[in-house]
Write a structure and sequence with these properties.
Elements lengths: L5 E6 L3 E7 L2 H6 L7 E3 L2 H10 L4 E5 L1 H11 L4 E4 L6 H12 L3 E2 L11 E7 L5 E6 L13 H5 L1 E7 L6 H16 L3 E5 L3 H18 L2 E5 H7 L5 H9 L4 E5 L5 E5 L2 E5 L13 H14 L4 H16 L10 H9 L1
Parallel strand pairs: 1-5, 1-9, 2-7, 3-8, 5-6, 9-10, 10-11, 11-12
Antiparallel strand pairs: 2-4, 7-8, 12-13, 13-14
Helix pairs in contact: 3-10, 7-8, 8-9, 10-11, 11-12
Amino acid sequence: MADYKFDTTCIGNAIVDVLARIDDDFLTQETLVKNSMNLIDEARAEDLYAKMGSAIEISGGSAGNTAAGVASLGGKSNYIGKVRNDQLGAIFAHDIQAMGVTFETERSTDGAATARSFILVTPDAHRTMNTYLGACVELGPDDINPAMIAASEVTYMEGYLWDPDGGKAAFRKAAEIAHEADKRVSLTLSDSFCVDRFRGEFQTFIKGGVDILFANEDEIKSLYQTEDLSDAIAAVRDTVEIACITRSNKGSVIIQGDNTLTVEADTSVDVVDTTGAGDLYASGFLYGFTNGYSLADSGRIASLAAAEIISHIGARPETSLKDLIAQKLS
């Protein structure tokens, strides 16, 4: 049996991102809500791809991006996600392993193709995602390697994977294994529309076993059905060990017990594409948390990692985050 040891194991939808620049009129014509994540079928995927013009293909997926970020920071990361043994599946596996991430999930030999997400970026750098899940929905509890989870300081899960029943079962199995090994479980809510679909189930899962919760302002408000951020903070404070709430250019808020820490956003970069900002924020925080940094420094690393991602197209780091953090924190 392999001798595993990871800072973080990330579980999520293994997706190849297809990014294209569009204008707001395109969103209107296609009846798309800016900044939303829409699940689409294969026919809609082909329709959008034909309409969106020239595009760039980059391996992505929320938890995959987080795993890549942890590795770029110098951490030991592992990824669990399902792809098909097709061309895009090979691209995804190559890209994430090239980042230094362990990826051993068995590829599907039949069924749906590897997933892809059409990410439409408007001139204001906001992104609207339209995702064909494909092989992702086939991930289930059998894909959870108990040895990997037990050897991970934090097991991090993306809320997007809660849609298929197999994903839910995989999450519950992983959480049980992690806690039996006295390790932590982390969840990102992923999208307010996702929260709207599964609010009750998320609340139950979080209360029953999530130690570290990531959400943006809209997602945490949706979770607790309030328009007041302070009310949402009060609700989450007694539910999890740590909550990290991102607020775009307003920075973030980290809550632990009675303590509330405000972290400023890094505004030193020009915003090109916000895709992956939350994913890399999670990378930075989890790397800091699992490597002995204070909450304040973990939050700062998170903000710096998010800033690097929004400075270019794509949700994987283009420069060494380890070197960047060394320069910025010195």
